Amino acid sequence: MRGLHHRIRMARESAGMLQADLAKALRVNPSAVSHWESGRRKPRTMMLARIAAATGADVNWLWPSGALAADEREFIRTWRRLSPAAQLAWAESFRNKELLAFCGRVKAGSAA
Fold first, then answer.
1. Could you give the CA distance from residue 75 to residue 98 in angstroms, rounded to a whole number?
2. 4-108: which CATH number, 1.25.40.10, 3.40.50.300, 2.102.10.10, 1.10.260.40?
3. What is the reported pTM?
4. How far is CA 66 from CA 21, 72, 83, 91, in A?
5. pLDDT tens-digit readout, 64-106
6. What end-to-end distance do the CA atoms of the chain give, in Å?
7. CB–CB of 48/62 below 8 Å?
8. Taking every pair of C-alpha atoms in the chain, what is the biggest distance, in angstroms?
9. Most exposed of 51, 69, 73, 109 (fewest Cβ within 10 Å)?
């Protein structure tokens, strides 16, 4: 199986998107997409969910579970149980910076 960077590019191209299109859909700088596709950087797990939602790719195909940490595998198991509409809604919710900040506080143990 090809590397993550190759699968991200294949998902984008299969969706008929340019790097700039995917970057706009994900609200990231186009250089981030370029770095992921060249293998210089890897997207975070939550970003993989957003990439999957934006391109219509299966997140399990993008990054097979064997290459993930335990918390990342749990994220994907949760993702798999969601309907396509719920997956899209969940991926969209991560564009909310307040929600991301809250998730960081919960992980650190100070969700107040």
1. 20
2. 1.10.260.40
3. 0.60
4. 30, 10, 23, 22
5. 655 566 776 777 788 788 787 777 677 667 665 555 554 554 4
6. 44
7. yes
8. 44
9. 109
